[in-house]
Specification:
This protein has 20 helices and 21 strands.
Length: 540
């Protein structure tokens, strides 16, 4: 009987235990929720609080560093298209073009048939004088193979770059030499010139191309001017096409060379950055020289500062197509791990008061990046009348010419994009890398003949005799690009020019390739015509 009576109270005990468990659980849950509430309401830093809670309480273990690396770009994306996060692994590469040098061996290379091919040994770099030659195949670095289908440009660069003063042992193969050769190169400073070309276009006109604005740009520019002075140049063309910008200071310094005293070059202003003006000091050596500045849709940032200063002060003529439209100024902020952000701190304004920044919607960077494509679809690259200025605020230059803000610099003289002879066959040949591969192979097989040629005229005559479009078509077909005879004929001149340019660049230099291209470049020819007619200084 007593045993049965004890069983009778079991459900009661269980119920009391469940209730007690709920009460205890609720008590601790309230304590934790109050703790979290205190955290969320106490610090005023929701982002930091969120990361703390995830790290402390999330169901699975989380790599917090990886989470932060992914979150930072998304946060900055909500500000503007040019505030960006750069990881530690990418920071050095991102800055080396602006710094004017990096530590490595000093070669330009090309991956062909799963092998690293040396295209150029950079003058003044560590590899110069080491025994490396253009055309050499680099098989390994410090015993690590650099051949095979899986090899990438990044892997090769990591193997060749390194601490200044360190050695790298290379195994190479060279045409005409049996077996492998061993070469040791001591890594050192490799110069990265931002002035990519400087020479005389004709008896009176100098030409300087600036690829970007870095720490050494102004010094390089002055050296280029000094070189042109030895040829007694009387006119100057500055080519900023393809120049995405960089540091603001060298653009201001270069503008100063051409402006009279006390002319406004640019000013900056932001929420925490009071207006700061940059004016000419009157010590420039070329204040009265006829000047033309070439721009296109890929001229941005510091390029637009220089072009804007020249245009708004009516100091020279801007020739080409509408510039990119970047009017935001970034400052670099480094983290302790080597990563960094570029944060927009101010806007810059040209002397007339216009900000050149094109419209953007925070968080919609894809639309922003599609702007250049939309310009093409709208016909802007082919007709000045298609440039959209509706809604853009009007400004006036020093002598009263009308200019527009809010979308780049509209040139004084428009030059449409040259698409004569363009076909789908040419597009595929170019974008698929077939042209680059062919030009390298041609140079590799003709180095001795090309080395005997002196001038661009001699090189052009030699290449003309090779019937390169036909030779290319045969090569490309063996590589999988189906031959299109009608399109080949329609694009013959375009193919010929592109092949000549690639061969001259590979065999000699970028400057020599530009020297060849400029003989038929419509924008350069327009600039020369303006100078010939004495119209470089704008009139109202």
């Amino acid at each position: 009987m007593s045993k049965n009576r004890n069983y009778r109270f079991v459900p009661l005990y269980v119920s009391l235990g469940v209730v007690l468990g709920i009460l205890i659980g609720s008590f601790y849950a309230n304590q934790y929720s109050q703790k979290y509430l205190s955290i969320m309401n106490g610090s005023g830093n929701k982002l930091g609080d969120l990361l703390y809670i995830i790290d402390d309480q999330y169901v699975d273990r989380v790599d917090m560093n990886n989470l932060i690396e992914k979150a930072l770009p998304q946060i900055l994306k909500e500000l503007d298209p040019h505030s960006v996060y750069i990881s530690a692994s990418e920071a050095e590469t991102a800055m080396q073009g602006l710094n004017g040098s990096f530590s490595g061996i000093g070669v330009q290379f090309f991956l062909l048939d799963d092998t690293v091919r040396v295209v150029h040994v950079i003058p003044g770099g560590p590899a110069e004088g080491s025994g490396l030659h253009p055309g050499d195949r680099i098989l390994s670095a410090d015993g690590k193979s650099l051949t095979g289908r899986d090899i990438t440009n990044d892997q090769v660069m990591k193997s060749l770059k390194g601490r200044e003063g360190s050695n790298v042992s290379l195994k190479i193969r060279r045409n005409g030499v049996k077996g492998e050769l061993g070469i040791t190169v001591t890594r050192g400073e490799v110069p990265l010139n931002s002035v990519t070309a400087s020479y005389m276009l004709n008896d009176t006109t100098g030409y300087i191309a600036i690829g970007n604005f870095g720490e050494t740009t102004y010094a390089e520019f002055l050296a280029a001017l000094a070189g042109l002075n030895t040829h007694d140049f009387r006119n100057l063309i500055i080519d900023l096409r393809g120049n995405l910008g960089g540091y603001m200071a060298p653009a201001i310094q270069i503008a100063n060379e051409f402006l009279p005293k006390d002319r406004l070059i640019v000013y900056t202003e932001g929420r925490k950055s009071p207006r700061e003006e940059y004016t000419s000091d009157g010590r420039g050596s070329y204040q009265s020289m006829p000047l033309i500045v070439l721009v296109d849709e890929t001229s941005a940032s510091a390029s637009e500062i220089l072009a804007g200063a020249i245009q708004d002060n009516d100091r020279g003529t801007i020739v080409g197509r509408r510039t990119f439209g970047k009017g935001l100024v970034q400052i670099p902020i480094e983290f302790s791990d080597g990563s960094m952000i570029r944060l927009t701190k101010a806007r810059y304004y040209t002397p007339s008061g216009r900000c050149l920044q094109k419209p953007y919607t925070p968080g919609m960077e894809e639309d922003y990046e599609m702007d250049l494509v939309q310009r093409m679809e709208h016909g802007e690259y082919y007709s000045r009348d298609s440039i959209r200025t509706q809604g853009s605020k009007r400004y006036h230059t020093r002598i009263g010419r009308t200019v527009y803000g809010g979308g780049g610099i509209i040139p004084d003289e428009f030059v449409p994009m040259d698409t004569a002879g363009m076909t789908s066959y040419f597009k595929e040949a170019y974008s698929g890398g077939y042209i680059n591969r062919f030009t390298y192979i041609f140079v590799d097989h003709n180095r001795k003949a090309l080395a005997r040629l002196g001038t661009i005229r001699e090189v052009s005559k030699f290449l003309k005799r090779q019937n390169l479009p036909e030779a290319f078509a045969r090569y490309a077909e063996t590589q999988g690009l189906k031959r299109r005879n009608l399109m080949l004929e329609k694009s013959r001149k375009l193919f010929e020019r592109q092949l000549f340019q690639g061969i001259i660049s590979d065999a000699y230099s970028t400057e020599k390739a530009l020297e060849f291209t400029n003989t038929f470049d419509p924008t350069v020819l327009k600039a020369l015509d303006i100078l010939r007619r004495g119209k470089a200084f704008p009139q109202k």
